[in-house]
Amino acid sequence: MVNLNLPSYTYKTKEIEGKTYIFDIIRKKYLVLTPEEWVRQHFINLLITHYGFSKNLLRLEGGLAYNRLQKRTDIVVFDKDGSPFLLVECKAFDVPINQAVVEQASRYNLTMKCPFVVVTNGINTFCFKINFDNGTFIQIKDLPKGNN
Which InterPro entries match (predicted)? Predict the structure, then answer.
């Protein structure tokens, strides 16, 4: 896998029948190591070790309904009260972060109602603060810290 613009960390992988798997510390199991999973696992590490989010407050690939379609969010971080706080949409490192990716994350957030939305491919990461009162959002320079 390629080097990302995210902090490196010590991860566990294993080979099974010619496929590489990476250990997910949240779901406590090995998952097929795809380019998107590589980004997701690095971002999980970033949220926990650099931003102070408890791994108990992270939900991965959670289901949600949007326009009667079943969709999956990559990462949702909840605040200490159990309310959705930060939605993260991960893409493979070779997928550009463009308007369509931002719109996808925004559609998911219509259901989740997180005050912060992040889109990342591990190379480029963008964070937005959402104002639900007036329907606007602004790009911010850094992610919010944990312990919220």
Answer: HSDR_N
User: Strand ranges (DSSP E) for the chain?
Assistant: 13-16, 19-24, 29-32, 58-66, 69-78, 84-90, 116-120, 125-131, 136-140
φ, ψ at 142 (rounded to 5°): -145, 160
- Asked whether the beta carbons of 114 and 106 are under 8 A apart, the reply is no
H helices within the chain, ranges in order? 35-49, 99-112
**Domain segments of the chain as ranges:** 35-140
Whole-Å CA distances, 100 to 12, 43, 105: 33, 21, 9
What top-level class would CATH report for the domain 35-140?
A: alpha beta
pLDDT, tens digit (0-9, with 9 covering 90-100), for 13-37: 999 999 999 999 999 999 999 999 9
Two structure tokens written together for 57: 């407050």
User: Taking the model in full, what pTM does it have?
Assistant: 0.91
